[in-house]
């Protein structure tokens, strides 16, 4: 079954079935279709113009209990009622995106974590009211399978929340803390010590981060190498940071960043492979990855 609209689209994925719907009537269409797709596993409800209301989410929660992937990003009309409904309706939820949903509160998000404990990917970017230390404490307490978390521009996040997250979610792989201006070295140190599988860390504009945090990341790899080598059965080199953004972290010095770069060979500063991003840090121009150094030392062949 396919319905098309030239203006804008809502995409609902049901196994191998794709349905496109007019965003103009999104709420009513979701209300009518939800009871027909009780085996729905993935539901993408991204919106250009806000249409979704709480009754649509409540209807989905009543009928679609197999839902694993839900995207409600930019749903400005939704209130905490939607989160309370999905907490009971989606016990198997593993991927949840509410980025840009500025109306949700941390109380409702805490409630969700009590029921949706299988979450692996959570996007809270821009959820200023929902993403607080209190909410992160609940995530750390209830969602220990979490692997990816986006907290970009959540200015109410501080060390207490990030440290609780680190202690409660040891399998964390990707963490975006860009614009979380309240966090300090203590957050990064906790992540370095507890989240040994961390591959991607975004600290853009976290200006309270100093060399102490970066040295802790480097030291954690050295400290945990023997035990991880055994547990990974020779795959240790696949572990460790592969992406790091320290742009606008102006308190950092070249020696600390170079030490980290030397410790994690997957961090690159060379052209085309920028996995170590340092824009806005003019004092770090002397930092280079190993392959960048090799390229600069290779003698030019005379023609």
From TrEMBL:
One of its GO terms (cellular component) is cytoplasm. Residues 24-220 form the F-box/LRR-repeat protein 15-like leucin rich repeat domain. Keywords: Signal, Ubl conjugation pathway. Residues 1-22 form the signal peptide. It holds the Pfam family DUF7885. This is F-box protein SKP2A-like isoform X3. It comes from Durio zibethinus (Durian).
